[in-house]
């Protein structure tokens, strides 16, 4: 019975007896796979920490040490925007420099139950988390009509606060075309609030006070 438990000898390529140690372990993961998995995990951790940091900046209203240039341009992609010290603004759905953020309004806006965002306009699709939203990595998002109305109201409040306090304003808030869209949105009293509308993530300028 003891002989049944012993491993059978193997022949090598020359027809000679070899040992079990010469047989590669086919079940062990390759070094390339492990390194790729580690790289993915590190990248996900960095993205999560960046989103958490942006949420902290919103909650505390603290500026970044790496602020954008005086023109307020955040580039045209999330990586460039974050490098220039910009933050994603859920009100305007845009990347903005710290000078163009109204942190009090942002905190109030995020507390609204209707401030929900989706990545697809499909039935049964779940809204994304706040941390996912603040990463700003999506090129477009889907929202309800009620969100569009809230966004208009908060944009008007932001404009009023900027004029009163002589602070900077982003290009979205001062865009006359967006103002006309808001007017039309409130004139249209009909419409299903469950239907989702697509909004594009923007990279507007930041208009600094003289």
TrEMBL record:
This is Uncharacterized protein. It comes from Conoideocrella luteorostrata.
């Amino acid at each position: 019975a003891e002989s049944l438990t012993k491993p059978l000898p193997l022949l090598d390529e020359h027809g000679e007896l070899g040992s079990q140690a010469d047989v590669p372990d086919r079940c062990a993961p390759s070094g390339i796979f492990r390194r790729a998995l580690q790289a993915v995990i590190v990248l996900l951790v960095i993205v999560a920490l960046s989103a958490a940091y942006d949420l902290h900046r919103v909650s505390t209203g603290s500026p970044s040490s790496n602020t954008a240039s005086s023109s307020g341009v955040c580039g045209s992609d999330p990586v460039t925007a974050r490098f220039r010290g910009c933050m994603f603004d859920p009100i305007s759905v845009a990347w903005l420099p710290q000078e163009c953020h109204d942190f009090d309004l942002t905190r109030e806006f995020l507390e609204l139950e209707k401030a929900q965002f989706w990545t697809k306009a499909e039935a049964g699709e779940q809204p994304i988390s706040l941390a996912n939203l603040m990463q700003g990595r999506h090129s477009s998002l889907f929202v309800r009509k009620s969100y569009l109305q809230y966004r208009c109201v908060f944009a008007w409040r932001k404009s009023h606060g900027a004029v009163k306090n002589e602070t900077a304003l982003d290009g979205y808030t001062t865009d006359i075309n967006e103002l006309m869209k808001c007017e039309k949105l409130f004139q249209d009293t009909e419409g299903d609030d469950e239907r989702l509308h697509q909004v594009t993530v923007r990279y507007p300028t930041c208009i600094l006070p003289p």
